[in-house]
Amino acid sequence: MDAFTTLTAIAAPLPLGNVDTDKIIPARFLKTIKRTGLGVHLFDTLRYRADGSENPDFVLNQDPYRRAQILIAFENFGCGSSREHAPWALLDFGIRAVIAPDFADIFYNNCFKNGILPVRLPRAVCEQLMADARMGNNARVTIDLARQVVLRPNGEEIGFEIDPFRKHMLLEGLDEIGQTLQHAARIDGFERERQAAQPWLPSLHA
Amino acid sequence: MGAGMQRTLFDKLWDSHVVERLPDGTCVLYIDRHLVHEVTSPQAFEGLRLAGRPVRRPEATIAVVDHNIPTSDRRRGISEPESRLQVETLEKNVAEFGVPYFPVLDPRQGIVHIVGPEQGISLPGMTIVCGDSHTSTHGALGALAFGIGTSEVEHVLATQTLLQRPAKNMLIEVSGRLPLGVTAKDMVLAIIGRIGTAGGTGHVIEYAGEAVRALDMAGRMTVCNMSIEAGARAGLIAPDETTFAYVKGRPYAPAGEAFERAVAYWRTLPADAGAHYDKRVHLDAAGIAPMVTWGTNPEAVVPITGAVPDPDAEADETARAQMRRMLDYMGLSAGQRMTEVPIDVVFIGSCTNGRIEDIRAAAAVARGRRVADGVRALVVAGSGLVKQQAEAEGLDRVLLEAGFEWREPGCSMCLGMNPDKLAPGQRCASTSNRNFEGRQGPGGRTHLVSPAMAAAAALSGRLADVREFV
Ligand code: SF4
């Protein structure tokens, strides 16, 4: 996973609430066994017309937002499925951060596993950023994870909250499994105690 | 959670699975059961392979195929190449890593959330995860069950744990009794209508109250299934005699003395008197009617006796714009009576409503009647065993004679990854759980309802009040 430190990039406005995972990537594109290549299907139903051509009204089909690496949206972003294809599609398109008033839990988690930073900011701030994001080539927003600030195009700094563990993992681009396996001895012990205390827990081996 | 404090069911489940509490409060949480399916696992197994890691506890893991598979005769295999590749990849992975697996022609095959409880693989007191958000279903047994992404699937395969922070506790109490014709599905739709699609975010919802206690296990699973639709990480119902009777005798459930010991432990799980909940919601069951969604998220729901709401009556501008967009997509107009909405397709199935009780409810309405002209109505059992049971009861005959299609088990038209899809503009009364744009096929329009309501819609050719059929 790529580390996330500081990002300065074009921010695209997506002024929608309840952007669900089917909207981010419809189920028919989940038939892949890879993590990559989903970017072309990102927001498929919004982005393409029925005949497969680009919908010129959709923000990511417009310059400079084709190069956007930050997305600004409204409430409950990423609701619905647990599919990690949603962050994979965002990442494959080039999105490294999403800013919204709040996120669905599983999607929020999944972002961190893929080097995407989800930033929670109050609705009023998201509305300001939404207006900033409409400034085309001037819609350049900076996110500094170490300092936990978003910099608006006018230079104003906005602080955000993030769990220290997740921040650390993201800043360093660390492999969570490797981290957890440092506790392998504790897991072994827990497993033995649990099996002794609850011997009814069945094995699924035939 | 200090000793001596009154704890909720969630607190007890959580505390009993904490392997290690890290300094910042993140916990290494032990996972008892890991359910795996073909869509969200290939990249996880690939990750293990690249890192040279084994599956830590294959015997705590079970794999099924459900999302992609066709629901017509399957002895001929899967014709769609990408779907076939996903299924073949799963088969290769389970063989390579020694993971137990129910293949597509095994009668125990089915939707992962139907199979787990049915086989006694999911038990009270467990932590259960799956790369699928509707893992919340298993919470009906009194287990902490939640959906995870593929990176976490890999994490559980490798370590049998997850790094998690505890959720907050939310209690939803439904008092009184559900009126005739009103089901668990209507209850949960009413709940989501009340608290909204983000009402449970950051929380685990425990459902309680007389109306919840009165539900059978199928109904409890329907309610817990849709917890995610309210934004909650998981849904829970405290285990009781109904739970124990359901679990007893299941293939993987403990038997004999082990069962008695297990029950004794499971009886300690319900919340202590006076336990603290961060949020509480109360509903009166008597006030719940058969429900139907009108929009493109599950909180856009009204009683079947109601009408499509008017966006102009909505004060908030974003909400108003969203409502307009929903009506536009759904091809509905403000003020239209729900019972006047014609439908093209009916889908009865999914992990929400694909159990034998659901098929019985649909068949009871359909018996001796006919599906309306021009309506295509599919019934898709949640597992091979549900299908067998329905056939043993003659429900397949009842449904076929009424003009329904009787298909092989799987996710089917719940998400349209297999050939069962809506065409653009088609309108469906569906017992599934998501009415998102394009969920059942690009341009498809979904109205979420109970199985009995879906059957009533099939017979009427429009959304209908099932109480006119009972
Ligand atoms: S039936 Fe639908 S909701 Fe349930 S697991 Fe399958 S696709 Fe997901």
Spatial strand order of the main sheet of chain B: 5-4-3-6-7
**How does the helix and strand content of chain A classify structurally?**
alpha/beta
Give the distance, in angstroms, between the N- and C-terminal Cα atoms of chain A: 37 Å
Oligomer category: heterodimer
Number of H/I helices of chain B:
15
Q: What is the C-alpha radius of gyration of chain A, as a whole number of Å?
A: 20 Å
Shape of chain A: globular
* Biggest beta-sheet profile of chain A: 7 strands, mixed
Spans of at least 5 consecutive residues with low confidence of chain B: none
Q: Let me know the CATH homologous superfamily of the largest domain in chain A.
A: Aconitase, domain 4
Protein topology:
The complex is a heterodimer of chains A (206) and B (470).
Chain A: E1 6-14, H1 21-24, H2 44-47, E2 70-73, H3 85-93, E3 97-100, H4 105-112, E4 117-120, H5 123-133, E5 140-144, E6 149-151, E7 157-159, H6 164-172, H7 176-181, H8 184-197
Parallel strand pairs in A: 1-2, 2-3, 3-4
Antiparallel strand pairs in A: 1-5, 5-6, 6-7
Chain B: H1 9-15, E1 18-21, E2 27-30, E3 33-36, H2 42-51, E4 61-64, H3 81-97, E5 101-102, H4 112-119, E6 127-130, E7 144-147, H5 150-159, E8 161-164, E9 168-175, H6 184-195, E10 203-208, H7 210-213, H8 217-225, E11 234-236, H9 241-247, H10 256-266, E12 279-284, E13 291-293, E14 301-303, H11 317-330, E15 345-348, H12 356-366, E16 376-380, H13 384-392, H14 395-402, E17 405-407, E18 427-430, E19 445-448, H15 451-460
Parallel strand pairs in B: 3-4, 3-6, 4-5, 6-7, 9-10, 9-12, 10-11, 15-16, 15-18, 16-17, 18-19
Antiparallel strand pairs in B: 1-2, 2-8, 13-14
